[in-house]
């Protein structure tokens, strides 16, 4: 295959490290303050509620990955559910773009924490410049091969999960559990439900595991295991740290420092040393998150290219399709990092991801639930939860920042319109992709 996938190149710990690497890098560091702004003083519960919604969504991905593990992940699920259609291609491309958006979100978060650690205000041209530099570094790591990514992801995942959990424990030990809600705006049910869109975004990193399915050892078992383990680890860490932040700072200060909330909460609870340690942890977490995300999305784009669902051009570059999609991923992430702030990047990613997620559950419910042994009520519950959260989030954003709603609608329309034109001009033909999946299943001891 032109994309040059390496079977059995990622172990179960590699996959778990990749998932937690993406989730923790974006979730607790980049989104805590934004979730607090929408959910109010009970924002830690938004992470729990987001985990519940994510658990229903993950059910679909686990069932599909167990049946057909693929390096194309979301693209494979789409093609199985809808065939080589505009809906399948457009939704898969939305997923890829939401992952690239996540890279921009985490890269800018890296920059804000670095500047705070240096005693500078995170503003001006330095924020996008540092973010782009991190993306370039992540490209170099990914270009060195799977084992480099797997080993680095494991080391960084252990460091940041342990370190951030210790931050939460130490902060609670020093200050106790006592939420200071002064100065925070009153938020109702709509605000809390709307905040779940960002909380779900904090967990969406589990899809990076799905997108590397064909490269994971014993994928018919380990893809699902890695997803469940990653989500479980992250919900514990998120809740612990969110409670610690809420106990250390009043709500208005959390919202004011929403781009670097953990660092702001560390100093009153742990002193100046704690502040610098938290900044160091944030840099490790965000750097590993960008590396893991670029690894997954570049492989997804390569698989979509193999499926003839998106166009491809070498632009004179040497190497395989996977090498080229790695470059495309980095270029798009760099542009988003340069021109969008953290709040808008997060909002755009949430819109794209939730729409894509609803389409996945609907396609599997209509066409594949019997074949993969999925429970219909779980799939319909996932659709309903996503729809409620998406609606509440859209209402809130329309009130506070209508331009990002317009940008999201225009972006999604452009994606589906582009795919419609591309597929009409280049009708996809059956490739060896499904045969490849069946051979993979047989090789791993599963029935075809």
From TrEMBL:
<keyword id="KW-1003">Cell membrane</keyword>
<feature type="transmembrane region" description="Helical">
    <location>
        <begin position="226"/>
        <end position="245"/>
    </location>
</feature>
<keyword id="KW-0472">Membrane</keyword>
<feature type="transmembrane region" description="Helical">
    <location>
        <begin position="187"/>
        <end position="206"/>
    </location>
</feature>
<feature type="transmembrane region" description="Helical">
    <location>
        <begin position="125"/>
        <end position="143"/>
    </location>
</feature>
<dbReference type="InterPro" id="IPR050367">
    <property type="entry name" value="APC_superfamily"/>
</dbReference>
<dbReference type="GO" id="GO:0005886">
    <property type="term" value="C:plasma membrane"/>
</dbReference>
<feature type="transmembrane region" description="Helical">
    <location>
        <begin position="402"/>
        <end position="423"/>
    </location>
</feature>
<feature type="transmembrane region" description="Helical">
    <location>
        <begin position="323"/>
        <end position="340"/>
    </location>
</feature>
<feature type="transmembrane region" description="Helical">
    <location>
        <begin position="346"/>
        <end position="365"/>
    </location>
</feature>
<feature type="transmembrane region" description="Helical">
    <location>
        <begin position="42"/>
        <end position="62"/>
    </location>
</feature>
<protein>
    <submittedName>
        <fullName>APC family permease</fullName>
    </submittedName>
</protein>
<feature type="transmembrane region" description="Helical">
    <location>
        <begin position="155"/>
        <end position="175"/>
    </location>
</feature>
<feature type="transmembrane region" description="Helical">
    <location>
        <begin position="377"/>
        <end position="396"/>
    </location>
</feature>
<feature type="transmembrane region" description="Helical">
    <location>
        <begin position="82"/>
        <end position="105"/>
    </location>
</feature>
<dbReference type="Pfam" id="PF13520">
    <property type="entry name" value="AA_permease_2"/>
</dbReference>
<keyword id="KW-1133">Transmembrane helix</keyword>
<feature type="region of interest" description="Disordered">
    <location>
        <begin position="427"/>
        <end position="448"/>
    </location>
</feature>
<dbReference type="InterPro" id="IPR002293">
    <property type="entry name" value="AA/rel_permease1"/>
</dbReference>
<feature type="transmembrane region" description="Helical">
    <location>
        <begin position="275"/>
        <end position="302"/>
    </location>
</feature>
<feature type="compositionally biased region" description="Basic and acidic residues">
    <location>
        <begin position="433"/>
        <end position="442"/>
    </location>
</feature>
<feature type="transmembrane region" description="Helical">
    <location>
        <begin position="12"/>
        <end position="36"/>
    </location>
</feature>
<keyword id="KW-0812">Transmembrane</keyword>
<dbReference type="GO" id="GO:0022857">
    <property type="term" value="F:transmembrane transporter activity"/>
</dbReference>
